[in-house]
Amino acid sequence: MKLLVLLAIVLLIIAGHQLLRIIELSRGLKKTKEWQLTNSDNNLMGRGMLIFMILFFVFFFWQILRWRERALPSSASEHGFKIDWLWDVNMNYIVIPVFLITNFVLFWFAYKYRGNTNNKATFFAHSNKLEMLWTVIPAVALAFIIIFGLKYWNEIMADASDPNRITVELYAKQFDWTARYAGKDGKLGTTDYRQISGSNSVGMDTSDVLGHDDILVKNEFHIPVGREIELLMRSRDVIHSAYLPHFRAQMNCVPGLVTAFKFKPVKTTEEMRKDPYVIQMMAGINKQREKEGKEPVIFDYLLLCNKICGASHFNMQMNVVVESEKDYNVWLAKQKPVKAMASK
Ligand SMILES: [Cu+2]
């Protein structure tokens, strides 16, 4: 079998070589050289450019329509609307129009000014007007992106300042998350990595009484709607990244550091499940899951790890439940403090 494949390849190479010889010989008869392009070659190339452009644009718009319903729903956090606005302005008014215009011009000119043995190229060395145009327009566009980008960055990345905020610590390790709440005293206990052990998986400093009423939760954590949430992030082993796409939030979790991100959720999980776009999006997802023989799922806010942190990275996620303050307090009251868990 292998010999046959090898033989086929060798024969193919010989056939290709012979074909080239024939082309060379026929060119000899036509008294042109193989590197000299005829007008019909140029026409073929020019039309090819046009056809490519059309297929390229059709594919581009087809993709937008095809994957439209898999895009993230509208923001579930207050600051997220600013990020979305900036994204939309960037894409709809700058990136996509520039992409369409430049690619149209690129392929159209390749067609329109295709080689012709009767034409002579124009000598054109310099134009101040043109230089000005293609310097000023990109400069204005970039200035807009940078100024608004920096303005929103500073607002979004500012420290949490609301005295009524709720602080949740997210502890990352290969390959799961643990969320920690301050408990009754409202203060998170200090941590000490040297105390990490089987029963003290997040490395709480057991000598700090502030930590004794702290609450640890896995798989899912709850936050109330309309309150400022301060996330403090730690990592045990490698750099992870806490990614909350629906809240337009992401922050690296770095071993040896505490990083922070603040945001205010504006829609509860239930409200999001009733959103017409989310209903349509989930229907599309479940249709695909059905094809793959998987159970249907309902919408949940997710905390994902967005750093390729190891073999089970894909599995590193936690559900986030946003609910009314009342429901949140009921849920929190049911969670057991660390002390009780350790003595089990
Ligand atoms: Cu990770």
Please give a handful of descriptors for the protein shown.
alpha+beta; Immunoglobulin-like; single chain; five-stranded mixed sheet; 10 strands; 8 helices; about 350 residues; about 15% strand; binds copper (II) ion; 2 domains
Short description:
Helix 2 (39-67) packs antiparallel against helix 3 and helix 3 packs antiparallel against helix 4 (128-157). By secondary structure, this protein is α+β, with helices and mostly antiparallel strands. The protein is built from 8 helices and 10 strands.
Structural features, described:
There is one protein chain. By secondary structure, this protein is of the alpha+beta class. The protein has two domains: 40-115 and 128-158, no CATH class; 166-343, Cupredoxins -  blue copper proteins (Immunoglobulin-like). It contains eight helices and ten strands. The protein has helices spanning 2-30, 39-67, 80-112, 128-157, 269-274, 276-291, 325-334, 338-343; strands at residues 166-173, 176-181, 215-217, 220-224, 229-235, 240-244, 249-253, 259-263, 301-305, 317-323. The strands form two sheets. Strands 3-2-1-5-8 form a five-stranded mixed β-sheet, with no helix packed on it. Strands 4-10-9-6-7 form a five-stranded mixed β-sheet. The longest helix has 33 residues, at 80-112. The protein is elongated, with a radius of gyration of 30 Å. The termini are far apart. The relative contact order is 0.11. The model has no long low-confidence stretch (mean pLDDT 90). The chain binds copper (II) ion (CU). The site of copper (II) ion has 7 residues, from loops.
